[in-house]
Design brief:
The complex is a heterodimer of chains A (336) and B (235). By secondary structure, chain A is mostly helical. Chain A has 13 helices and 2 strands, in the order ααααβαβαααααααα. Chain A has one domain (2-325): ABC transporter involved in vitamin B12 uptake, BtuC. Chain A has helices at 2-39, 46-67, 77-105, 110-131, 149-156, 166-188, 190-200, 202-207, 212-238, 244-258, 264-282, 286-292, 311-325, and strands at residues 145-147, 164-165. Chain A has a two-stranded antiparallel sheet with strand order 1-2. The model of chain A has no long low-confidence stretch (mean pLDDT 92). Chain B has helices at 43-51, 73-79, 96-103, 112-121, 123-127, 138-150, 168-182, 195-201, 219-224, 226-233, and strands at residues 4-12, 18-27, 31-36, 58-63, 66-67, 81-84, 156-160, 187-191, 204-209, 212-218. In chain B, a hairpin with a 2-residue loop joins strand 9 (204-209) and strand 10. In chain B, helix 3 (96-103) packs parallel to helix 6 (138-150). Chain B is globular, with a radius of gyration of 17 Å. Classes of the chains: A mainly alpha (336), B alpha/beta (235). Chains A and B meet through helix 7 and helix 8 of A and helix 2 and helix 3 of B.
């Protein structure tokens, strides 16, 4: 019994949250890695671009709610995904047209493009501040829990309850669907193959007749879809604080680099590596050990390796360790 | 009048000096033409000029009698001119089959038939079709590179040092493959360092020196020309 209770504690407070958080990071990391693989620069506007897309989801959710449109037990935000994604892609393509394209044609070095993306980041933050402001907003509606702790306890008669929030289930399911479609597209379609070819060897791709403009366009579209979905899922799960996305860039970049930058599948797994590391290292295991250890050995401290305030330090350390010992990433990177 | 002609081409990189000067090279279908010469003679530059990778200052490039001097490299690919660069000539992270598919990017018809033809020409590619090209040996990679270039069924195939960095045995094998390609009625122009071996399979050859045509003639003529032998073949 105690053993099952211990497992439930872990599931509840580490594994399920880590899978959720990992999915959100994975979507951001794939965005970073796609832009890096095709457009060849580290996009520091990633976090704020995700926030930008989410902002539309928040505004549209309020609008739909005022019209009385909802999805019943599901959050209204789910209907807004296509619209928010559309606005996001529009924004990205105009940024690309007015800013990045100029440097691409000039064949500027990647560092210069990265600096340009810092500029884009500030502008994006300013636009968000003007449109929606910096306040914290909740836009989750519908049923909050799929499984409540109290219901679970009643069903099983165990001490520990299992809680599954609907946002957790939605995050994991939508991420799996979105990522599967993306991998199918990259690996099985002609356009996807041409993107991988372009990322692998740009000159030879041009000699094979691949149109670089089209590749860039499609990259922004795919990246835009993933980033918006990732941003909305994160906002639903935690609440929408526009500038928290900026902070999330550290774990997102760490995930992309752990997975081998330029490798989407690596970035996908990297998201979970970072999320599990952050949560496992900052979780207080007292309750868990109370269940599995005999009474005499019961811990009297919190059994917490690091305070949760050090969450980002974990991603940062992983980032540094990977860059020192395995710079090409755990899953080998460089190309799509 | 040959099928593919570069007439009196003068070109250089950017605003730098002219690398080739009034250089003429032509090739007919079903013919292998070798471009030879010492280092810095402008062999690769001549080839790049014919591909449109650099702009001509004067002269012209004709294909089938039509002037294609103003076409971009991509448009020349569409017109049927394929190119195998000397380095980075495969997509190392893609499988053999995907490399061929990318080679046929401009074709909208069913490419399976062409892929089958390529497999017939290079049986090893069929065997390794789902392997990543980065894992293949040097000789096998060169076959992938050739196969990729042949996917558009080109009428002109340009090879930049196809045997650079491969062992003598692989070199012989590659030359055999190039001859097989020639038999499919393709005009082949290749730049080569291994002059003797290249001439032995070439129908004609050009020797460039400081960007100008110095000698030209059939493979045997050049091989037996005492002056060419003395200055370039080291015998």
């Amino acid at each position: 019994m105690d053993f099952i209770n211990a497992i439930l504690v872990l599931l509840n407070y580490t594994i399920i949250p880590a899978l959720t958080y990992g999915s959100q990071l994975a979507l951001g990391a794939i965005f970073v890695t796609l832009i890096y693989g095709i457009l060849r620069f580290a996009n520091f506007a990633t976090g704020d671009m995700m926030s930008f897309g989410t902002m539309f989801a928040v505004l549209l959710t309020y609008y739909f709610q005022s019209l009385g449109i909802n999805l019943g037990i599901f959050p209204t935000a789910l209907i807004t995904i296509p619209f928010a994604t559309f606005m996001m892609i529009l924004y990205m393509l105009s940024i690309d047209k007015f800013v990045f394209e100029y440097y691409r044609i000039k064949k500027s070095p990647p560092v210069q493009l990265a600096m340009v993306s810092v500029g884009v980041m500030f502008v994006t933050q300013a636009i968000i501040r003007i449109i929606i402001g910096p306040a914290d907003r909740t836009f989750l509606d519908g049923q909050k829990f799929i499984l409540k702790a109290s219901e679970f306890k009643e069903m099983t008669g165990l001490n520990e309850g299992l809680t599954i929030k609907s946002t957790q289930a939605i995050t994991i399911v939508i991420t799996m669907i979105a990522v599967s479609i993306m991998f199918w597209f990259l690996n099985r379609t002609k356009t996807g193959t041409s993107m991988r070819a372009y990322s692998d060897n740009e000159d030879l791709a041009l000699l094979s007749g691949i149109d670089p403009k089209r590749v860039v366009l499609i990259t922004w579209i795919i990246a835009g879809i993933l980033a918006t979905i990732g941003g909305i899922l994160y906002g639903l799960d935690k609440s929408y604080r526009p500038f928290v996305y900026f902070n999330n860039m550290l774990p997102i970049f760490a995930a992309a680099i752990v997975g081998g930058i330029g490798n989407p599948f690596g970035a996908f797994l990297g998201g979970y590596v970072i999320a599990f590391a952050e949560i496992f290292l900052t979780y207080a295991y007292k309750k868990f050990f109370t269940y599995i250890l005999p009474e005499a050995l019961e811990p009297n401290s919190m059994m917490q390796l690091l305070s949760t305030d050090y969450k980002f330090a974990v991603s940062f350390s992983i980032l540094v360790i990977v860059l020192l010992f395995r710079p090409s990433g755990i899953f080998k990177g460089k190309t799509l | 009048m040959a099928f593919f002609e570069g007439n009196k081409m003068t070109a250089g990189y950017g605003s730098g000096p002219d690398i080739i000067n009034s250089c003429s090279i032509n090739a007919d279908k079903g013919e292998i033409v070798a471009i030879l010469g010492p280092n810095g003679a402008g062999k690769s530059t001549a080839m790049k000029a014919m591909l449109g990778l650099l702009n001509l200052k004067s002269g012209s490039v004709l294909m089938d009698g039509k002037n294609i001097s103003s076409l971009s490299p991509q448009d020349r690919v569409k017109a049927g001119i394929s190119f195998v660069p000397q380095t980075r000539n495969v997509f190392a992270d893609l499988t053999v089959r995907e490399n061929l598919e990318v080679g046929a990017f401009l074709r909208s018809d069913d490419i399976n038939k062409v892929i089958e033809e390529i497999y017939e020409l290079f049986p090893i590619l069929n065997e390794k079709r789902s392997q990543k090209v980065g894992q293949l040996s040097g000789g096998q990679r060169q076959q992938v590179a050739l196969g990729r270039a042949l996917m558009i069924r080109p009428s002109v195939l340009m090879l930049d040092e196809p045997t650079a960095g491969v062992s003598p045995i692989v070199m012989d094998e590659l030359f055999d493959h190039i001859i097989k390609v020639k038999e499919t009625n393709v005009a082949i122009i290749m730049v080569e360092q291994n002059a003797k071996q290249a001439l032995s399979i070439s129908d004609r050859g050009y020797v460039l020196v400081t960007g100008e045509n110095k000698f030209e003639g059939s493979g045997n003529e050049l091989l037996n020309d005492p002056e060419v032998r003395r200055s370039f073949l080291g015998a």
